[in-house]
Amino acid sequence: MLTSCQQDSAQQQFEAEAYGPAEGYTETDLQQNILSQDKQDWRVSPYYEGLVQVLPLFPNPISYGGTAYLEMTLNGAPVQSYVELGYLNYNNRWIPLQQETVGSEFELVTFVIDSRNFGSSAELARGLHRLLLYDGNQRLITYGDIFIQ
Prior knowledge:
The protein is mostly beta strands. Helix content is 14%, strand content 42%.
């Protein structure tokens, strides 16, 4: 019981950090090499620690019209039927980017992020955006920031 309460408290703290302002980002190239790292980006939530591995978004930053990728590997994670990647826009409205069905507890899931989803023009999309990845029970798995140039 105590472990469960500690895990719930840690999960709540993790989620509170995720809903904070986007500050910095992990810079990566097309080959997934990390050029500079933001220690807050792409950490796995306490609930999924050891069960999910998330590689940093790549490439990051991207130009408007470009595409970035996020890879998540399930290592026995009890994900509930699907995972969903999205972000909160300037009005704090949830904008879904991609939902993937998860058929196995051991699976590689790749998300394809089109920079045009963040605005109808480069001027609107440009800047730092916080991406959030949830399981089918709306439990936060990870979060990180994308910079659109």
